[in-house]
Amino acid sequence: MASITVILYICICVLAIFGNSLTIVMFILERRLLKKSYNILILTLAITDVLTAVNVIVNPSFVLGDAFPYPTGPILGEVFCRLISTRLLIFQLVFFSVYINLVLTAERWCAIVKPHKYNYAFSNKRVLCYIVLSWVWSVLLILKGALAVGYSPSGDKICQRNDSGGTLFNAIWYATQIFLKMIIPCISMIGMYVHMISKTLKSPAASPESVAKLKARLTLMIAVATLVLIVLYIPNQIVFFLSTLGKIQLNTPLHKLTCFLTFMTTCLNPFIYGLSNNIYRQRYRRILFAICPSVMRGSRVQAEDVQANDNHALGRTQLCTEPNREIAAGEQNHLAMFTDLSLDVKE
């Protein structure tokens, strides 16, 4: 069972690195796309997903296991215990992704509901500020967890947990954490999409431009990516919160399943981009053709052969029908001539 889990993690990590690297390369080759604020945020998400996948691969809890080079010194030991063994480095990237999705949702909301304020609220400089603030906020969210663990080798363990404060304080603290990590961003994203729909489709004062933006493939793409993130992310946070209350144990099959669902989001975004947005799909094809020209050329030749066969079949049909048309026309002409001759004889 453990080997199957490792294989599954390797598969989603490889897909995440490949798909998101494709997105990153697309923006590197066509930098003019980054003039749009939403593309800057999508690039940030792609980089974050690649970093998350790499961290999942090297983390001993998921793939490497005992093959991980465990530290023996105090400095590296503290780094390992506070960031790697606790998985906080990975979940800091997950929290960062959640808040970048929140900014993306706000960008769509502003473009549709408040278009007159869009250029001010989502200029490129402001978007970069939002990204930096999201990163700092995600670090603050994991800070207490990193301080609660330290390097203290004893027996078969090198990391020891020390939750300062009483049980009530820790329960309040973790409840606040869940509120900030999950409830606020998720409810905010859902609320903004509901407001966009109600404001645009149900309001007679909505402009045609706002309706067009709501129905645009870009908005659909971001909405689907956000919904997938929420659905796959919430179970893990619920399990974690219940574990802080002593209701559920960590590292159980249920907890591992929720972790797997959370990390699945890293490999799904590129597929969502490609399936829902024709512009992204065309650029993905160009990059893949440059990377694997023989494979892509083979698929193109096959498509051209199919088209040629269709054209050939159509040509044969036309060749078969044209002589029949000529024969029918000849018979009609012959009948007309015979009728004329008969009339002449009667006269």
Automatic annotation (TrEMBL):
Subcellular location as annotated: Membrane
A GO molecular-function annotation: G protein-coupled receptor activity
Gene Ontology cellular component list: membrane
Major place of residence: membrane
Boundaries of every G-protein coupled receptors family 1 profile domain copy: 19-273
InterPro entries noted in UniProt: GPCR_Rhodpsn (IPR000276), GPCR_Rhodpsn_7TM (IPR017452)
Keyword hit for Coiled coil: no
Keywords: G-protein coupled receptor, Membrane, Receptor, Transducer, Transmembrane, Transmembrane helix
Top-level taxon: Eukaryota
Transmembrane segments: 6-29, 41-64, 84-106, 127-151, 171-194, 214-234, 254-276
UniProt record similarity statement: Belongs to the G-protein coupled receptor 1 family.
Protein name per its UniProtKB record: Melatonin receptor type 1A
